[in-house]
Amino acid sequence: MSFPSLRSLSRARSTISKAPSPAEAQSDEFRPFVDRHLEAIKPLPPITLLNLPGRVIWFNVIVITTTPLLSLYGIFTTRAVAQTVLFSIAFYVWNMLGITAGYHRLWSHRSYNATKPLQYFLATAGAGAVQGSIKWWSRSHRAHHRYTDTDLDPYGAHHGLFWSHIGWMLVKPSTRPGPADISDLKQNPVVDWQHRWFFVLALFFGGFVPAAVPGLLWDDWRGGLFFAGFLRLTCVHHSTFCVNSLAHWLGNTTFDDKLSPRDHLLTAIVTLGEGYHNFHHQFPIDYRNAVKWYQWDPTKWFIATCSYIGLASHLRRFPDVEVKKSMLTMQLKSLKAEVDRILWPPSSNDLPVISWNNFQAQSRSRPLIVISGFIHDMSDFLDQHPGGRRLLVQNIGKDATASFLGGVYDHSHAAQNLLATMRVGVLHGGLEHIDELAIPPCQRLQIVKWSGAVHSGCSAGM
Ligand SMILES: [Zn+2]
Ligand SMILES: [Zn+2]
């Protein structure tokens, strides 16, 4: 086995890092896929009042509008039986797990492996949530991740909160979702079985079972129909829809701010833990949405429990160090923004160079003192000097570097920062006696943007 020579490595490196020529940059290879795809397809015309009836998906409209209306009717006309209420909550959690632990984290993102029993448990739970089959749902969701915030994203947040919540399901969109690979799902027998029997399964687990269990076991057919049936289904629908709408609108960009996903506890509460969506879009292969132990993520706890009892395995986690890097980047970005809002002392490049004679002459009309090569105007500070006015007056027109740095008193970092704000000039031929003092302590650790570093020549030699 031979190793490449240093010369060939450096040649390879220069080839890789070579920027595209203007002609190359114009070629398709260097243009974003989304732009090329949008140019290649023929989108439908924008939706208007005139073409709206032809674009409406009536089946979805009927399901989405009648379930909350029937729920409201049930709430005001049906007696709430304790067992039925508890059963409805349990059924809601089961359906939600079908979507969050099944449709989303298992089948859309392959964030863990599940045994057949667990897959059937989640596939039937997801069918009872009545949101389409695993195959259809995961295909849309993979397109959502691949084309987030573009016109190829089926529920792109850039179209507004209503569109990303339910609008995208109610009408035929102008642009179909972008291509997404689901070849792995096509080979999964559970996914295939659920897709083939979806309407039967949805009717059975979404309608019949929730109504029949309270009816058969404690004779509450009406409560079963309205509470465990329609009201539970309405809650399941809108909880899930919040992952597409609320999670792209409310909260913090903890790990990245390039796209719209956000982290928020409220979204996590209504979505069984899917609310740390900023994390999820950065690390979609991770079986967790919440990385901190105190953050609300019941779906993560469910998957971990399944792993503990042998129903799940290969739980995938993004390396902690990568998670930390993303978080630190955002923290530094926020610090940089805060730093940029502060007025900092002038640097020597922005100050006039003043000769010793000129400094002496100007010192007769105002209290100027040289410290470490910088000329400082003490006019507003004479009476505020903690060591007393006399010490400063004694040094007017003189170089007080030694006194400032311990000859009289070894000043604090805060004092050095304050002193730097009084700079009015640089002494011609004057030396920065103590290198460190030229840069006040508050400016020694700076957050520099890459573009700023390149412009200031920091990248030279890289
Ligand atoms: Zn996802
Ligand atoms: Zn999203």
TrEMBL record:
Belongs to the fatty acid desaturase type 1 family. Its EC number is 1.14.19.1. This is Acyl-CoA desaturase. It comes from Somion occarium. The keyword Lipid metabolism applies. Its main location: membrane. The chain crosses the membrane at residues 56-76, 85-106, 118-137, 197-218. It catalyses: octadecanoyl-CoA + 2 Fe(II)-[cytochrome b5] + O2 + 2 H(+) = (9Z)-octadecenoyl-CoA + 2 Fe(III)-[cytochrome b5] + 2 H2O. It comes from the Eukaryota. Expected to bind 2 Fe(2+) ions per subunit. The lineage of its organism: Eukaryota, Fungi, Dikarya, Basidiomycota, Agaricomycotina. SMART domains: Cyt-b5. It is a multi-pass membrane protein. PROSITE patterns: CYTOCHROME_B5_2, FATTY_ACID_DESATUR_1. It is found in: Membrane.
